[in-house]
Amino acid sequence: MSLRVLILDSDPAPLRDRLAEAMPDVVIETCDSYAAMHDLVPAFKPDVLYSVSFAGRAGYPWQPLYGADGPKWISVGGSGVDHLEPWDPSRITVTNSAGVASAMMAEYVFGSILHYTLDIDGLAADKAARRWDPAREMQPLQGKTMLIVGLGHTGQAVAQRAKAFEMSVIGTRARPVPMEHVDEVRASDDLPQLWEQADFVTVSVPLLPSTRGLVDARAFAAMKPSAMLVDVSRGGVVDQDALVNALRSGAIAHAALDVFPEEPLPEDSPQWGLENAILSPHCSAVFDGWATRSFGLFLDNLERWRAGEPLQNIVDPARGY
Fold it and tell me: Which of the residues are catalytic?
């Protein structure tokens, strides 16, 4: 019986054509709507699902996927799996595309940091005023401390670039072991002792029960008043009320926020009015070529699946990554 693959994406046609060219014997169905999945899954009975969740849309159709007619393998096109409900790993294998966008996300982190250390806003204001300020100074990254909360693919990419700037790098992970580009790897439970050491904090952990609200009012109170926080994790990891208060009060100096508990960010959200924060629409991982790379990882894994070989990037439902 032919392998049956379902592609869920807002624009599935290019992905369908690429799969058909690579594996002509595979039976392919596509879907561009969450709602349609409830009827399509039991009718098509896919063996495999390649799924890209739609940004800003709730209601991911996990119910039919976990039913008797659902796939044996769900390949998530992004890195996060918090849109899925807990699954039974004895029946369903879930993989993600972690690592595909890590370099781009690390560039976002340092682009945001350099925006402030080079005072790009101040330079733009001086230019608009035709003002030449010979007393202006830059702020070097050399010798500063980067704290990375979560040393997954993205955290490691940030660490590598931080060392290129000759920064000191501290990172946390659930199971601390020595890692390249990281001067000190600590357990997540050590964070209360680490906030005060950081000049820059990068948050890059998945959203789990253990990480929800991880960066809270106590964390901001412990940080340096000159510190900057960059959040490329998931909405919910950083306590937004505490963050807004910290930025307004001067408890920390700056922030760059790419993720929010509610997306799109409502027009009445206080984050819009923060003059010392960069806001972006959950796009730090979005770049020209992302979809090609993510689907390429899926195709490589599909070859493994058909050959009975272990898949890459299997997600542990208990850990969430």
Answer: 234, 263, 282
Superfamily of domain 4-99+288-307: NAD(P)-binding Rossmann-like Domain (3.40.50.720)
Which CATH class, in words, describes the domain spanning 140-279? alpha beta
Q: For the chain, which residues make up each domain, given as ranges?
A: 4-99+288-307, 140-279
User: What is the 3-state secondary structure of the chain?
Assistant: CCCEEEEECCCCHHHHHHHHHHCCCCEEEEECCHHHHHHHHHHHCCCEEEECCCCCCCCCCHHHHCCCCCCCEEEECCCCCCCCCCCCCCCCEEECCCCCCHHHHHHHHHHHHHHHHCCHHHHHHHHHCCCCCCCCCCCCCCCCEEEEECCCHHHHHHHHHHHHCCCEEEEEECCCCCCCCCCEEEEHHHHHHHHHHCCEEEECCCCCCCCCCCECHHHHHHCCCCCEEEECCCCCCECHHHHHHHHHHCCCCEEEECCCCCCCCCCCCHHHHCCCEEECCCCCCCCCCHHHHHHHHHHHHHHHHHHCCCCCCECCCCCCC
Residue 230: half-sphere exposure toward Cβ, Cα within 13 Å: 27
User: Over the stretch 196-245, which tens digit does the pLDDT of each residue have?
Assistant: 999 999 999 999 999 999 999 999 999 999 999 999 999 999 999 999 99
pLDDT at 64 over 60: yes
